[in-house]
Write a structure and sequence with these properties.
This protein is 29% helix and 20% strand. With 410 residues, it is of the alpha/beta class. The chain is globular and about 60 Å long. Helix 4 links the parallel strand 3 and strand 4. The strands form 3 sheets. Strands 1, 2, 3, 4, 5, 7, 9, 10 and 11 form a 9-stranded mixed beta sheet that branches. It folds into 2 domains: 310 residues, Alkaline Phosphatase, subunit A, CATH 3.40.720; 81 residues, Arylsulfatase, C-terminal domain, CATH 3.30.1120. Helix 1 packs across helix 7 and helix 5 runs parallel beside helix 7.
């Protein structure tokens, strides 16, 4: 039976590696843990772009960043819901989401204006994220029939205003006191950079993740007692992560296409907690959430949008195929297969490649392009083919991935 209703929560700059369900044992994320125990967790979800505008387009129109807006035409997700009689609501504190052209497709929009932040909040209730989730829960309380409620938080791209106690709880006794910074750090690390300064950034970010976990717990508690709670699809994701020293970057910087930026969470709780405690190793990108939400709610999709359906694979209606993910940025491209991730940067038109073995090299610390030139050639060719197919409107008809790119050569 379709869900008919869906609640989607997107928290900007929330990297998957910071959550307990994705292997983090350093920071307690009890609400994310609880949600994952009730849900299907997608292990490998990669942003197709570091642009929030492109990600909203992916979610709300089902378009990869490389795909044009032209044919085959697709209705925005909110329009699909409205056509099926659903109430469609966007609750956000992010100007980029509020002003996105596709946001106008929601029947209702609640913008949670955030006051200028002068310092860390004294209590959780004084934070911007708490105000946003409180508004979303109040909106949820008004919904009693078929609904699409999308809650988008600027998250860690906004002020880091979590109470200092949430930062301090992750610091060891011998660590320097976490900084009281509010503005998200954004800098390239140079030789001789102070490691204590970087540690402070990590503790401050951890405090924001802890805040997000508390706010998610509020929403889960509200859904527990809501009439739609057990009958609605609930999805939690993020458009992009936040580098914290990996590959010499803290914050957005040049948006280098490494895992700390690209690897984002996607945890989906189905009605009546179907598929609870399940994990999917399928490589997924943000545009696939469009059809997953629509099909789960029983909304009519075009034939093109149904091709390669995530939901069909989940239900066993289709045999899963090895997948790839491609990401683009300014002068950069990346391709991920089950066995590899290849980064390409172009300087004066000449490509430079970095290659990392997956899934073993989780943090992309060991660059092996000089040792695996054949893999570099195959992946570079696959990247060209993927981009040509996407830009040419043949995205859904991508041929199966070559076997050599699915397993490491031993």
């Amino acid at each position: 039976m379709p869900a008919h209703s869906a609640v989607v929560v997107s928290i900007d700059r929330l990297g998957a590696g910071w959550l307990g369900p994705y292997g983090n044992t350093w920071l307690e994320t009890l609400s994310f843990n609880r949600l994952a125990a009730q849900s299907l967790l997608f292990e490998t979800v990669l942003a197709d772009s570091a642009s929030i505008e492109q990600c909203c387009r992916a979610w709300w129109l089902g378009r990869h960043a490389l795909q044009p807006d032209a044919e085959p035409a697709a209705l925005p997700l909110a329009s699909l819901g409205a056509k099926a009689g659903a109430r469609t609501v966007l609750v956000t504190d992010d100007p980029a989401a509020r002003n996105h052209p596709l946001a106008a497709g929601f029947g209702e929009m609640q913008v949670v204006e955030q006051p200028r932040t002068a310092g860390n909040a004294a209590d959780v209730e004084d934070t911007g994220l708490f105000r946003l989730f409180s508004a979303a829960i109040a909106m949820l309380d008004e919904c009693s029939a078929s609904t699409l409620l999308w809650v988008h938080a600027r998250g860690m791209s906004g002020p880091w205003d979590a109470p200092l106690e949430l930062r301090n709880q992750v610091a060891d006794e011998d660590d320097p006191e976490p900084p009281k910074l509010i503005e998200p750090p954004n800098q390239m690390l140079r030789a001789g950079s102070d490691p204590d300064e970087l540690l402070g950034f990590v503790h401050a970010y951890a405090g924001q993740v802890a805040l997000a976990d508390l706010c998610l717990g509020m929403l889960l508690a509200a859904l527990d007692v809501h009439p739609l709670g057990d009958r609605a699809l609930l999805a939690v994701t993020s458009p992009r992560g936040y580098p914290l020293g990996e590959h010499g970057r803290v914050g957005p910087c040049d948006e280098a296409l490494y895992g700390e930026l690209l690897h984002v969470p996607l945890i989906v709780r189905f009605p009546e907690k179907e598929h609870a405690l399940a994990r999917s190793r399928r490589i997924v990108q943000p545009h696939e959430l469009y059809s997953l939400v629509a099909e789960s709610c029983g909304w009519q999709l075009s034939a093109a949008a149904q091709s390669g359906s995530l939901l069909a694979e989940i239900r066993g209606d289709e045999l899963p195929q090895p997948r790839i993910a491609c990401s683009i940025g300014s002068g950069q491209r990346a391709i991920r297969t089950p066995a590899w991730i290849l980064r390409e940067e172009k300087t004066d038109g000449a490509p430079r490649y970095e290659l990392f073995a997956k899934p073993d090299d989780r943090w992309e610390a060991n660059e092996v392009s000089s040792l695996c030139s054949e893999a570099v050639e195959l992946l570079a060719a696959e990247l060209e083919r993927f981009e040509a197919a996407a830009r040419g409107g043949e995205f859904a008809q991508s041929p199966p991935l070559a076997e050599e790119l699915c397993e490491l050569w031993r």
